[in-house]
Amino acid sequence: MTTRRSRPRRSCHSVPATRERMVEKARDLPADVVFLDMEDAVPASERGGPARAAVTAALTAPFAARTVAVRVNAVGTPWFLGDVAAVVPARPDVLLVPKVEDPGHVAFVCHLLDALETDHGLQAGGIGVELQIESAGALAGVGAIAAACPPRVEALVFGPGDFAASLGAPQTMVGELPADGAPDPGGMALFAMVVAARAHGLQAVDGPYGDISDADGLVRAARRARALGCDGKWSIHPSQIAAINATFTASEDEIARARAIMEALGEGGAARLDGEMVDDATRRLAEGILRRSG
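The structure assignment produced for this chain is given below.
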């Protein structure tokens, strides 16, 4: 397994690239990642030149977010090549590629970035890549997609809306949760993506929860994503960021328990802690909690 570059990705906030007021508001938001969207959040009439000009202008000023990304249009669309060529000189931290279907898409993106970074005198491999898994076909080949192009690829991102559409699922809200006791195909798909990501040293991010008025539903969706092993989740409205950050940050109780485990185990072996047997497998769980605590 190759170890890829890792960044905080608890909250990944989506901003339509051509909505200047929303972009300016996003500069001070407490999300770990802010990404300027040139794809689904932008009308077709504004894709291409208008979106590229907006992104280039936006990236001339700083954001509070630790990572600033850009979502380009998908490989094979009329906009993809021009999007990437326009964005690279502006030096985003990450390029988010939607609707990835196979490893060939990944190889094409990474080779294109190699060439453009060289052409513009930029650091080789400096721009990271996130890959969106948004269809049944992509999920079927997600292991090969995750294995492509180390070390530039950093994370897999689940696209719940397009994935549900590819299944013909009977829902109309992006990120909709199943009724209590009902099958959860979105959760099963998300888990499969997380397994592929972890097997290849990648982070895993859940997509958006579409009902911005449903704070309880957002928390349930975020908790499901964390329970399945995700590093974070998208936000599509500033009001969602705090709850997502809180869900994906280790609690004080979790941190205290993890530290107690580490102390009880010392240099290794097994030990008894509050009636529970702990060992090196427990240590690895505790180490994960402590990494999440920052």
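Interim note for the steering committee: The CA atoms of residues 114 and 162 lie 29 Å apart. The chain has a mean pLDDT of 94.
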